Amino acid sequence: MKHLLFAFLGLSVALQAQAPAANSGTKTALPHVFVTSSSNPLKKSTRPISFGVIVINNPAARPQSADVLGEFSKNCSGVTLDNSITAADYVVSLEHQTGKGPLARYDKVTVYAHLSGEKITTKDTLSIDESIKNACDAIALHWPTYTPPAKPEPAAMPAQPAAAPAIAPTVEPVAPASFSIVVDSTPNAADIVLDGDFVGSTPSTIRVSLGMHEIILKKKGYSDWTRKLKVVGGSVHLNADLDKIPDTK
Asked: Distance from first CA to last CA of the chain, Å, rounded?
């Protein structure tokens, strides 16, 4: 009776970032590999199961444990591990079996070219490391001749009847929410403080709402220049002559 090599450890498996899907019809730089403990990973099933965000159409084709995937990634650097069986170029089945005689326990590795289901190698081994090496060697030998299946063309959408021309709604003009104040000074490069907040340096055009406002111009070496004004609409132009502070030395 066959026994699985390792129990499934959930979604803690660390996989490499997924490149464009292998079944898109375009061959990727490295083969994508799905590693499972199932002895029949390509068997069809009508009862899909879900592991977190991963949905597997064949409940038997579950991913291997994190330990096995870690060893596979370390000893077979020429592949990309994939957590989706439908996106894989190859499916590797790693089994732990029991038998009769002196070798009462042994491992078995089988590699399938997915999605064709072609079995490219199957061997009995004495260790998981030997199984991974055999799978890696078989994939490296087969990869140059591998052709991913073409992605089916999407069905053409039926023609839709022409929509009646839309009637543009009448839009009433909206009064502007703010008005402009042009602020100049002699000399320029003075800081502009509007209602207590710094808003720029002269010369500048600032936007204000209707109502009372206080504008202060500040420049090192010059006295502050202050104006209070009520904005009722349109635009305002302020030109301030700053008074230089006398040198007391």
From this structure: 104
Within this chain, do residues 44 and 120 fall inside the same structural domain, yes or no? yes
Pair (28, 107) in one structural domain:
yes
Q: Is 49 helix (H, G, I), strand (E, B) or coil?
A: strand
Q: Which range marks the domain in which residue 193 is found?
A: 179-241
Distance CA 243, CA 96 (A): 92
With residue 66 as reference, give the H or E element that holds it. helix 66-75
CB 69 within 8 A of CB 63: yes
pTM above 0.85, yes or no: no
Residue 152, domain member (yes or no): no
Find out whether 249 and 197 touch, Cβ atoms under 8 Å.
no
Task: Please tell me the number of Cα atoms within 13 Å of 3 on its side-chain side.
Answer: 9
Number of structural domains (the chain) is: 2
Residues 85 and 140 in one domain: yes
Buried b (16+ CB within 10 A) or exposed e, 76-104: beebbbbbbbebbbbbbbbbbbeeeeeee
224 Cβ contact partners less than 8 Å away, ≥ 6 residues apart? 216, 217, 218
Closest-CA residue to 227 (of 179, 185, 177, 189): 185
pLDDT band at 174 (very low <50, low <70, confident <90, very high): low
Q: pLDDT band at residue 160, thresholds of 50, 70 and 90?
A: confident
Residue 171 lies in a domain: no
What's the average model confidence in pLDDT over 112-117? 77
Distance CA 34, CA 16 (A): 12
Written as six digits, the tokens of 64 are 């291997």
Q: What is the CATH number of the domain that holds 191?
A: 2.60.40.1120
